Amino acid sequence: MDTEDYVIRQISVFSENRPGRLAAMAKALEEEKVNILAFSIAEAGEFGVVRALVDQPEKAYKKLSSLGFVVSFTEVIGVRMRDEPGGLYEVARILGEAKINIEYSYAYSGKEMAVLILRVDNTREAIKQIRAHGGEMARIPSR
Amino acid sequence: MFWDEKMETLRGKDLEALQLKRLKWTLAQAMKVPFYRGLFREAGIRPADVKAVDDVEKLPFTRKKDLREGYPFGFLAVPRQKVVRIHTTSGTTGKPTVVGYTKRDLAHWADLIARNLTMVGLREGDVFQNAVNYGLFTGGLGFHYGGELMGLTVIPAGTGNTKRQIEMINDFGVDAIHCTPSYAMHIAEVAEEIGATMPTLTTGLFGAEPWSESMRTELERKLDLSAFDSYGLSEMYGPGVAFECPEKDGLHIWHDCYLVEIIDPETGETLGAGERGEMVITPLVKEAMPLVRYRTGDMTMLREDGCACGRGQKISRILGRADDMLVIRGINVFPSQIEHVLLGLPEVGDHFMVYVDRVNYLDELTIEVEMKRETFSGELSDLARIQKRVTAALRDVLGIRTAVKLVEPGLLPRFEGKAKRVVDRRGGLF
Ligand SMILES: [Zn+2]
Fold first, then answer.
1. For B65-88, how does the pLDDT look when each residue is reduced to its tens digit (9 = 90+)?
2. For helices B138-149 and B103-119, angle between their N-to-C axes, nearest 10 degrees
3. H/E/C letters for each residue in B368-388?
């Protein structure tokens, strides 16, 4: 497997704290039969960013843009987490030693096991380092 | 190029003699109005006391409130039957103000508009789209007849149906457009959406609301034309009172038709050139409705540095109407200053709204501005950075702290006529 295969395209959507905006987003994706695999909301006062992993990022991007949402792609990576203590520490240690910063992270519960989604400041180097240190990268099924 | 070179370049003793003659005529005309007879009696002054142009300073002011109280025909100096047209200005509170015109007034007005159109470089036979409200608003008919007088092909487009406006510009080979700057921005936006260009358009005349230099840069870039500032007010016929020449460094106020002074709006004291204050105008040729020292509420200053074009008296671009001025925690803020800051920042879009609230007895200014699709990186930290940058830029210019809210593009209202971007939610004083 190639490093590039582990780069995941997350969609990031600008969101104001306006009632119904998140619901509208979810509904639009459902209509397009786009599955939301994981999502998180980051807020700073009056506005925020909705981050979502979907199975069809292109389709989601097009649909949401056409509805007036402000959307962009963000590269993230996924690390498979074993169900044992210390897993998160391991990943943080590997990246820390390689001087790679974690900007944010959130969890995704896949069918077989939990996946930690990470946004780092050097995506490709992070993939190489984690793999070199025996970490297991996740591939998110996407069409 | 001049429409009336002699009048436009008149100066020195000749100009002063003409102004004095016309001022005396205006005062005689005003004395036919009961309001002025009372006002002059109260002030203990007679028209005969005016022996030089500068004596105008001794005369009492006329305020918008007075005109409103004269509703409907209290300010007419001619029999109503001699009034061939009526316009009204929308009053934000209570009754509108009525403005009457005699045949002579309409001829003067059209002549001034023709001067402006010629000054910005338009020639007989050019195609002119007048995309402002027709009807009671003076911008429509004022430019319409001025354009016809100088021989332009005038399209009375009015406002609305923006796609059709763009189509007409292209089908008729329109050279110049007149509209509010907000509507021009909307036309540019719609043209971009539908992928249309307007290659024949060379000249934009924008007025009816104050607009900034950043707005000029934006409009000139987006519409690929040369943008000129147009100033007027219904009480002085309408548009055409002052206009930018190709130097675009101040507006020539037509010295043979309008006597201009700048005063301190608080004390009423006359200010010198280069001092910013409220503009007071005494029209010199208005027949149906002469006015004396009318307080326009517009904030500007006199310029005395001459002009390469050879024309006379200039004023600075209007910073705003005193009515539009917001007093936030004791600091004066004009919406045009906010516009200037926002348009100068590439990170945010061109549309904004301003809200004023009172929270715990303190005025709070909230500015909603649309973000730009292209500048959204997907990172929350970048959004926070943009918000901080906008807040800092506003603080630099306005001198106060504001709350900046980034909103989705397309969410804020678009305006076809005068933009109403300020919502004051403070209510009465309490
Ligand atoms: Zn000039």
1. 999 999 999 999 999 999 999 999
2. 70
3. EEEECHHHCCCCHHHHHHHHH
Please list the helix, strand and coil fractions of chain A in percent, rounded to the nearest 5, in that order: 30, 35, 30
Residue numbers in A near B411 (CB within 8 A): 16, 68
Please report residues of A whose CB lies closer than 8 A to that of B381: 103
Q: What pTM did the predictor assign?
A: 0.78
Phi, psi (rounded to 5 degrees) for B400 = -135, 160
Render pLDDT for A52-62 as a digit per residue (tens, 0 to 9): 999 999 999 99
**What is the whole-number distance in angstroms between the Cα of residue A92 and the centre of ligand 1?**
68
Domains of chain A, by residue range, sit at: 5-75, 76-137
Smallest CA–CA distance, residue A50 to chain B, in Å, is 9
Identify any residues that bridge with A116 across adjacent strands, giving them in sequence order.
Answer: A79, A107
For A5-75, the fitting CATH number among 3.40.630.10, 3.30.2290.10, 2.60.40.10, 3.30.2130.10 is 3.30.2130.10
| Range B189-200 average pLDDT | 95
Whether residue A99 has pLDDT greater than 50: yes
List CB contacts (< 8 A) between B189 and chain A.
none
Per-residue pLDDT at B430: 42
Cis peptide before B72 (omega within 30 of 0): yes
Please, what are the domains in chain B?
1-322 (3.40.50.12780), 326-429 (3.30.300.30)
Fold of A76-137: VC0802-like (3.30.2130)
**What is the Cα gyration radius of chain B?**
22
